[in-house]
């Protein structure tokens, strides 16, 4: 009887001393303007624009800097069109950069995560 009580006490003590697994955070929410202007070319499987933007890396694996993203949105590059201030205001462009950084951080924890538009399309 004494051994049983000691075994139960030891099991409880060990269980209480371990920390619970960290909760997996929810993936970042795709901004409306990003879904409207970017995802059609940059989502997985489309192969029009590079999808490495979600890891903040270029096709060659080099890190993408915020200014590189901002310049490409504003001035375009190859097949990517330029977006005017009236189409993508500075605040929304800031949101694009923030979103891409959040997705890159999230994919380090969940490498299989692939950003996708909301079911039913973009909603403001």
UniProtKB/TrEMBL annotation:
Keyword Iron included in the entry's annotation: yes
GO molecular function, one term: metal ion binding
Region forming the signal peptide: 1-22
Keywords annotated in UniProt: Heme, Iron, Metal-binding, Signal
SUPFAM superfamilies associated with the record: Cytochrome c
All copies of domain Cytochrome c, residue ranges: 10-104
Protein name as annotated: Cytochrome c domain-containing protein
């Amino acid at each position: 009887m004494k051994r049983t009580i000691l075994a139960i006490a030891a099991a409880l003590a060990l269980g209480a001393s371990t920390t619970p697994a960290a909760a997996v955070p929810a993936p970042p929410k795709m901004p409306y303007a990003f879904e409207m202007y970017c995802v059609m070319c940059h989502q997985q499987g489309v192969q029009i624009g590079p999808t490495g933007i979600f890891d903040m890396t270029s096709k060659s694996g080099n890190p993408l800097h915020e200014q590189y993203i901002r310049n490409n949105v504003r001035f375009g590059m190859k097949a990517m069109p330029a977006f005017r201030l009236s189409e993508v205001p500075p605040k929304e462009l800031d949101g694009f950069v923030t979103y891409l950084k959040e997705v890159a951080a999230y994919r380090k924890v969940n490498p299989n995560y692939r950003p996708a538009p909301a079911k039913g399309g973009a909603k403001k």
